[in-house]
Amino acid sequence: MKENTLIALLLFMLAVAPYQASSQTATIDIVTMKDGRVLKGKIQSYSPGQQLRFETAEGQTLELADADVAKIQQGAKLGDEEANRKANELPTARTRGLYANSMLSFAVGRSGEEGLSLGAGFSEVVGYQFTRVFGAGFGFGIDNYSRRGETVYPLFGELRAMFPSKKSTGNFYATAGGGYSLGIPRKSLDISEAEGGPMGYFALGYRAATIEGIDIYLDLGAKFQSAHFVRTLYNGDVEVRDIDFKRIVFRVGIGLWK
Question: pTM for the complete prediction?
Answer without folding.
Answer: 0.65
